[in-house]
Specification:
Blueprint lengths: L3 E5 L3 H13 L3 E5 L2 H11 L3 E5 L7 H11 L4 E5 L4 H9 L4 E4 L4 H14 L10 E4 L4 E4 L4 E4 L2 E3 L3 H12 L7 H9 L7 H15 L9 E4 L3 E4 L6
Parallel strand pairs: 1-2, 1-3, 3-4, 4-5
Antiparallel strand pairs: 6-7, 7-8, 8-9, 10-11
Helix pairs in contact: 1-5, 2-3, 4-8, 6-7, 6-8, 7-8
The structure holds calcium ion.
Calcium ion binds next to loops.
């Protein structure tokens, strides 16, 4: 699985430490302490994943995340020194896949990186496994990891993909936020339940005709989410 990680962190010591752990796990690591340089490296080197510090000296990590997300679906793991939940939610709403609050264990960071990449593992050459829902309103090809909503192919982050596939597993069944976390992450951590809502918001923006009145991913008040379409025969 190892691949190339772009590490964007201006604290030199921390950057060296994380680089060392990632390299030991087999990853090729590119690093920079500048947000502007990160954007040009993300473009030229096409890394498999970006670890992004939110507090950068030139442009904010949020701005970097926004541009990376506009350009594609490269997974982003955010590093934040701030303990504010609002700050983390803001990052997740920009499409980051996961976040780690400083101080963190470099070992845990590597595990998170591996978990994200495993979720997005490419399945080139796999036989198509197509499931269709709502008379073709939603088509999911799990083997090729593609989704088409209302005729448009959509590009989803690994987390958004995980949520959609979990819900589509049993259309109509209500999944609690906690269940969805476990399905997409394989682990849980404090404060995570609300962040599922941010990912759902992003997912709806991509797949729903009217994100304010979702037909595909529906909220069940006080319970969680469900797929609002039935599986086509
Ligand atoms: Ca920083």
């Amino acid at each position: 699985m190892p691949g190339t990680v772009l590490l964007v962190e201006d604290e030199r010591k921390l950057c060296d430490l994380v680089r060392c752990y990632l390299e030991r796990a087999g990853f090729a690591v590119l690093s920079t302490g500048s947000g502007a340089e990160a954007l040009s490296m993300a473009h030229s080197a096409a890394p498999d994943l970006i670890i992004l510090d939110l507090g950068l000296p030139d442009i904010s990590g949020h701005a970097v995340a926004r541009e990376v997300r506009e350009a594609g679906s490269t997974p982003i793991l955010m590093l934040t020194a701030r303990s504010s939940e609002q700050d983390r939610i803001a990052g997740l709403e920009l499409g980051a896949d996961d976040y780690v609050t400083k101080p963190f264990s470099p070992r845990e960071l590597v595990l998170r990186v591996q978990a994200i990449l495993r979720r997005q593992a490419s399945v080139d050459g796999a036989e198509p496994a197509i499931s269709s829902y709502g008379d073709g309103a939603l088509v999911i090809d799990e083997a090729r990891r593609t989704a088409t909503a209302f005729g448009q192919q959509v590009t989803l982050t690994p987390t958004e993909w995980g949520i959609l596939v979990a819900l589509a597993g049993l259309p109509g069944r209500v999944y609690s936020r906690f269940e969805l976390i476990n399905r997409v992450r394989g682990y849980d951590f404090e404060g995570y339940e609300r962040t599922i809502d941010s990912h759902v918001k992003n997912l709806r923006r991509k797949i729903e005709e009217d994100p304010a009145n979702p037909r595909i991913v529906q909220t069940v008040l006080g319970a969680g989410y469900r797929l609002g379409l039935t599986r086509d025969a």
